[in-house]
Amino acid sequence: MTTVTTPRAPVPPATGTRLLLGLSGSDTVDASLGSHLERWGTLPRPGDELLDELETSRLVGHGGGWFPVAAKWRSVATASRRRPVVVANGAESEPASRKDALLLTRAPHLVLDGLSLAAATLRAHRAIVYVPRHTAPAVEHALDERRRRRTDAVDIEIAECPHTYLAGQETAVVNQLGGRRDAVPAFQGLTSIRERGVDGRATLVQNAETLAHVALIGRFGGTWFRSVGAEDSPGTMLMTVTRAAGAHIVEAVLGSSLRQSAWISDDDMATTQGVLLGGYGGGWVSPRDFGELPVSEKAARRLGATLGAGVVALLPRDVCPLAEMAHVIRYMEGQGAGQCGPCVYGLADLAAAMEVLAWGRGHGSAHPARILEVCDLVEGRGACRHPDGVARFARSGLAVFAEEVAAHVQHGPCARMGAPRVLPGPGRAHPPAGAGRGTTSRRLVSRA
Amino acid sequence: MNRWKLQLVVDPVACDGRGVCAEVFPERIECDRWGYPIVDEADITPAIEEHALRAVRSCPRQALHLVERRC
Question: Chain B closest CA to A171's CA: distance in Å?
Answer without folding.
Answer: 13
